[in-house]
Amino acid sequence: MKKFLITAIFAFLGLTVFAQTRLYVNPKFGEIAKTQKIIAVLPFKVSITLRPNQMKKITPEQLKDMQLNEGSGIQTAMVSWFMKRSEKGKLLVQVQQPVVTNAILKKAGVDNTNIDSYTPAQLAKILKVDAVIMGTFQTTKPMSEGLSAAMGVLFGVWGATNRATMNLFIYNAGDNQVLLNYNKGLVGSLGSSTQDLVNILMRKASRRIAYVSTK
Fold first, then answer.
1. CA-only gyration radius of the chain, Å
2. Which of 123, 132, 155, 183 stands the most exposed, by the fewest C-beta atoms within 10 Å?
3. Is residue 214 assigned to a domain?
């Protein structure tokens, strides 16, 4: 029992010690947020670095599809995170639903291959929103294969270590100002779903996002 507890503690420390966080908040974020009514979350650009033996089992096209699906999954999970705050009366803006965001982008001819040629302000104008949330996500293992962090701590079932980094930006629609930049890196078990991942990553940033009431 004692040996198990020591192992669990070191496993948990392994998850936190190597975690890195960089958070920038625009001093005027709160003031600007008061003038905004609706925001949109875009699909994240995902890069999955698999082991050589894993790469042998899939084609480049399959990897690309996996990355696109992970990016859409993060978008949906992020919107869900905001909507839960809305249900509690803590969200101060509306969040455009992913099905609407993605349909508008598709109609405008914006996709993963050319989105980098648009500024955040241009994307916000296309979507008719006051701010856009977008970013990148790099991981060494798809979330569908992830193990629960809770199970890892309680039972010592960690499986393959996952290293992931999210770089999230909130841009103001009017002038491309960065309202918030949140760069979070984690090593260890990241949960069993994309929603688990987003919940973990947003835990620290939530109090600094002016769209979420802290009262």
1. 18
2. 155
3. no
Say how many residues make up the chain.
215
Distance CA 154, CA 114 (A): 44
Domains in the chain, number: 1
Residue 143 falls inside a structural domain: yes
Q: Please give the structure tokens belonging to residue 121.
A: 């302000």
Question: Is residue 151 in some structural domain?
Answer: yes
Q: Is 85 contained in some domain?
A: yes
Report the CATH number at residue 98: 3.40.50.10610
Task: Name which of 170, 140, 134 is nearest 45 in CA terms.
Answer: 134
Q: Under a CB-based contact definition with an 8 Å cutoff, are residues 200 and 168 in contact?
A: no
The 10s digit of each residue's pLDDT in 69-100 is 889 999 999 999 999 999 999 999 999 999 99
Q: Are 130 and 93 in contact (CB under 8 A)?
A: yes
* pLDDT score, position 13: 39
Domain of residue 135, residue span: 2-208
